[in-house]
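User: Run a structure prediction on this.
Assistant: Running it now.
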Amino acid sequence: MTEIPRETRVMDAVVSLVDSLLDDFDVVDLLTELTEQCAQLLDVAAVGLLLANPLRHLHLMAATSEKIHDLELFQLQADQGPCLDCYATGQPISVSDVQAEAARWPRFVAAATEAGFASVHAVPMRAAGTVLGALGLFGTGVGELNDADLLVAQTLAHIACVAILQVHPATPATVLPHLRTALTSRIVVDQAKGFLSQRLDVSVDDAFKLLRCYMRTHGDHLTEVSRRLITDPDGRQTILAAMRQMLAAAPS
């Protein structure tokens, strides 16, 4: 089978994401899809997206796995790491060997190494002269992020900004309300993931996959499904019953 050229795969991913922007989309699901596409297109193992609230405190918005979810949260708690520096400076950061930065980010480097990551790169998310967050790229091997990969990552970061601002003209006055809305959606989804993980006895990763599968099967929004799970007892039972059927039908 002929391998699809990388340039074609990049264009397909960009077109798919832009098509989603022109439809009725859920911001958490789209940003999760964006991080997954980023990991597939670039020479990295995992991707995380950090978004700032109006007080300029970063929060995790999307991640390709629970491992990178935990590492990104640790980076925020430790208040050190390349994604934080990228956000603070508004400039891309490329760390080909995290071990070489042990003096700069001692706690982050130790956690990244323990998690199996050897290189980290970050690109800023900007709109209307404001840095909204950072897209973190984590590799299991030592190496630089080449110019082509950096361009792809920055393009996807721009698409993320458009998704968060929901295609409205971006000005400093309009950016902040959209940041609040996006972060609130992420909190609701995280609550639903934790609820499903406990109720259905599955991992958090699998709980998230179930949420997204249910959403797509029923043509609903990820955030709305999550909200019903948390706040609507009747809707919760319907969703849980459908998800138990999904689990029973899944290959063992």
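The beta strands are 46-52, 58-63, 93-95, 119-127, 130-139.
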